[in-house]
Amino acid sequence: xxxxxxxxPGHPHYNEAVALELTVRTMRRAxxxxxxxxVARGTxxxxxxxxxxxxxxxxxxxxxxxxxx
Length: 69
Hints:
The protein is mainly α. The protein has a domain at 14-60. Helix content is 49%, strand content 0%. It has two helices and no strands. Helix 1 (14-30) packs across helix 2 (44-60). The protein is globular. The protein starts with 13 loop residues before the first helix and ends in a 9-residue tail after the last helix. The model has no long low-confidence stretch (mean pLDDT 92).
């Protein structure tokens, strides 16, 4: 399996991605922020939470979420 394969169990980076997601979700919960499962899918609130989650994910990997990507 090479790094261009879809991210799924068995992919070289799958466990890292899962750990990163769980870390960000846990940190958001500790900060009192909502995660996607806390809001109704497809609503404006869900969209806002998703965008904020992605910003936190970028921070977690050392990126600047305010820099165009």
